[in-house]
Predict the structure of Phosphodiesterase.
Amino acid sequence: MSAVGCPSGGVHGVPRRRESVARIHSMTIEAPITKVINMINVAQESSPATVVQALDKVLEILRTSELYAPHLPPQLGRDDDPMTSDLVGGLVSQNMKRRMSGNESQHQRTAHHGHPQSLTPLASLSQIPEHVQSILEREPTWDFDIIQLEEATNKRPLVYLGLKTFARFAVCEFLSIPESVLVAWLQLIESSYHDSNHYHNSTHAADVLHASAYFLECERTKTVFDAADCVACLIAAAVHDVDHPARTNAFLVNEGNQLALLYNDLAVLENHHASLAFRLTHKDPSVNIFQNLSREDYRALRQSIIDMVLATEMKQHFEHLSKFTHSINKTVLKCEDEASEPSSGSFDNETIFQQLSTPENRTLIKRMLIKCADVSNPVRPTHLCSVWAERIAEEYCQQQTDEEKERGLPVVMAVFDRKTCSIPKSQTSFIDVFINDMFGAWDLITETPVVTRAQEVQTMCPMAACAAADGLSSRDLDRKCSKRDVLRLKNVSVLKKPGVN
Ligand SMILES: [Zn+2]
């Protein structure tokens, strides 16, 4: 309220306002960023003019609210590379393309609900049929063939893989639930994925679960995470795309979808996946895997699962990567550097683990774990990578772009038009923009084996073929090819098929 005309305003109002400002300054609830800004202000007082100017620029940056949202390099949005700018625009950009026509209300619809699959009579791990058992034997390896499991289980890989993997990590014991509750929960979650989706179906969820479990077995994650972290990672992976409508967030916002209205256009799908997963779980005690947890344990697990599912939003990709690189990679490299100095024998693996094990760092690692698992297709063995590349292109082209054109909605990713789509080009751009740096950073936590396998690379990458012709060994090749080259060339050469651009 204005002090004008108010008896308590005027001369008496100023000191009162000053008092309240002073009171706020003396409060102990000061935010860390305010402390930093105050420290810089104090430093400025005794600094030469050039330093004061530089610090002014620092303060300007610190006062923005998006401290970890990097400014994308200009080449990512450049006009001469429509594939890259389309991917960045469609998956990352904060600005949704605006509708051309203004009749949103006529096009509102909720997310597609697939036909629930008939529930399998499977009741426990011991009842898994032999032919499925034999496929699942390779489950702990990176080469595990999820597509083979999809076929053998009649498109229900999540229940079978989930049972096997959750048993390996003793999830039922952690949650204090009988196996029957886990089976019923897995069935319910799997039936809530749309088997009509080319890509975002329960096989993708099972694939992400598989990659997550693989990462959890790596030396550094194993030591840094506790049992609750592992359980949260596995559950988050299983539910992270539940009820996915095969449309992107930008599409849902553009069409004024009910989910976009519900979540205010913010992380629409990711909020929906996390929320629905908990709503489904609490529907009935027969599927409630959390029923025997204490209130505190449930709260912590729920928070961790939600945080990971939300981290899969590509709009936040560069922010998560930047935080991870600044906090985790720098810590690891610093410890490794200090360990290599002869005078400092005190830094060893134990030191790295201690520094990585803080709750904040474990959160960053869990986010990166699910992000890498979610988009690990390009670093899988070639035949799997190829299937996934075709599926995502089909989903974007057929289930999104075709509909956008039909309904007069803005086309979010024009490169995914079935008449002109080039799978190799889209994959290469995706790898360049999102995969290389992320897996480079993730490599410090866990080696992802497929990218370093020179033997496999030799059979598919043109550079490798040339190297082989020159008589270079696999070891020479590994030295010559950076991982970035290997990933990139692998996808260009493998996915280039007759009849495909
Ligand atoms: Zn996903």
Remarks:
- Residues 1-11, 94-120, 450-481, 491-501 have pLDDT under 50 and may be disordered.
- The domain at 125-470 is CATH 1.10.1300.10 (Catalytic domain of cyclic nucleotide phosphodiesterase 4b2b).
- DSSP finds 26 helices and no strands in the chain.
- The two ends are 65 Å apart (CA to CA).
